[in-house]
Design a protein that fits this description.
Layout: E1 6-9, H1 13-24, E2 29-33, H2 49-52, E3 54-57, E4 60-65, H3 71-76, E5 80-84, H4 91-94, E6 98-101, E7 118-122, E8 134-136, E9 147-148, E10 171-173, E11 178-182, E12 189-190, E13 195-200, E14 206-210, E15 215-220, E16 226-227, E17 232-237, H5 251-272
Parallel strand pairs: 1-2, 1-6, 2-5, 4-5, 6-7, 7-8
Antiparallel strand pairs: 3-4, 8-9, 10-17, 11-13, 11-16, 12-15, 13-14, 15-17
Length: 273
C-alpha cells in the first residue's frame, strides 16, 4: 500500500482523534493550524503545539514547525508536524494526495476540491461535489461517522449532544468580551453555580463564569485567551466518575476517525492497483 501525503486542516480534539488514528496506522500527516487556536478540550488537541512547541495526546506528539522543509525530520522521528498555515498555502508546494478539513467551523474556510485528488470534510458547511469529494457526519446519534457521498452533513443545530441527560447546559459561553482567567481548570470537580473562571473586561471589571451543572470540567479555553461575547469557553461533563475522559480522545472523535481511515485506506489501495 502506498503512503499518501495527507494534510489535516485543524488540530482541535475531533481533528486530533482523526490524526491519531491515521498516525497509528502508519500514515504521515501534516497538521495546519491558525496562529491562535481556540481548543476547549486542549488536553487532547494537537493545536496546543502552536503555543507550547509540542503537544502529546495518547502517545502521539505534535511538533510545531516553521516551514514545510522541517516536516520530513519530524515524520522520521515518528511525530506529527504542526504548521501555522491558516490559508493552506503550503498545499501548492506539498501537493498532498489527501486533504481533510477537520476545522469543524460549521462552514467552509477555504477548502477546495482542487487542493488534492481526495478531499474530505468533517461535519456541516460543505456540499459533496462542490466543496469536497466526501463528507463524514459529525452529529451525535445513529448517523455519527456515516460517510456521505451525496449532499451535505446534518446542519448545525446549535444544541450540543446529550451526555448524562444534559445537552446545552454542558457548554458555557462568554457573557461578555474580555480576557479569560481560569479558576478551576480541566479535570476539576465542580458544583453548580461555583465560580470556575472570570472574564476581565477592558474596563477592568471582572465577570464571573459559573458552573451550569455539577460535574467535571472536561474542557476550558486556555488561560489569558481573549474572548468575544458568546464565545465557547468551557464544557462540563456530568459523569463525575469518568475523570479520565478529560485526558483521552472521545468516543465521537474515534468514530469519525474510523470513517476517515476507511477512506484513506481505500484511496491508497486503489492507487496501488
Amino acid at each position: 500500500m502506498i503512503n499518501p501525503k495527507i494534510i489535516v486542516r485543524g488540530g482541535g480534539d475531533l481533528a486530533t482523534g482523526v490524526i491519531h488514528r491515521l498516525w497509528s496506522a502508519g500514515f504521515k500527516v501534516l497538521v495546519l493550524e491558525c496562529a491562535q487556536p481556540a481548543a476547549i478540550r486542549r488536553q487532547v488537541a494537537l493545536c496546543e503545539a502552536v503555543y507550547q512547541g509540542e503537544a502529546t495526546v495518547e502517545g502521539m506528539t505534535g511538533v510545531l514547525i516553521h516551514s514545510l522543509a522541517e516536516a520530513q525530520s519530524v515524520w522520521e522521528a515518528g511525530r506529527v508536524p504542526v504548521l501555522v498555515d491558516e490559508s493552506c498555502a503550503c498545499a501548492a508546494e506539498l501537493q498532498p494526495d489527501i486533504l481533510i478539513d477537520a476545522i469543524i467551523a460549521k462552514r467552509n474556510l477555504g477548502t477546495k476540491r482542487s487542493l488534492a485528488p481526495l478531499t474530505i470534510a468533517l461535519g456541516p458547511g460543505f456540499t459533496v461535489g462542490e466543496d469536497v469529494d466526501v463528507i463524514v457526519e459529525t452529529k451525535r446519534g445513529h448517523n455519527l461517522g456515516r460517510i456521505i457521498r451525496n449532499g451535505s452533513a446534518t446542519p448545525n443545530s446549535g444544541i450540543p449532544g446529550n451526555i448524562g441527560g444534559f445537552s446545552k447546559e454542558r457548554v458555557l459561553h462568554a457573557e461578555c468580551a474580555g480576557v479569560l482567567h481560569i479558576v478551576r481548570d480541566i479535570g476539576s470537580l465542580v458544583e453548580k453555580d461555583e465560580v470556575i473562571a472570570y472574564i476581565e473586561k477592558e474596563s477592568g471589571e471582572q465577570v464571573s463564569v459559573l458552573a451550569t451543572l455539577t460535574g467535571i470540567i472536561r474542557g476550558m479555553i486556555r488561560e489569558g485567551f481573549v474572548v468575544t461575547r458568546g464565545f465557547k469557553i468551557a464544557d462540563i461533563d456530568p459523569r463525575q466518575e469518568e475523570l479520565a475522559n478529560c485526558f483521552t480522545i472521545s468516543d465521537k472523535a474515534r468514530c469519525i476517525a474510523g470513517s476517515v481511515l476507511e477512506l484513506v485506506c481505500r484511496y491508497a489501495q486503489e492507487k496501488q492497483k
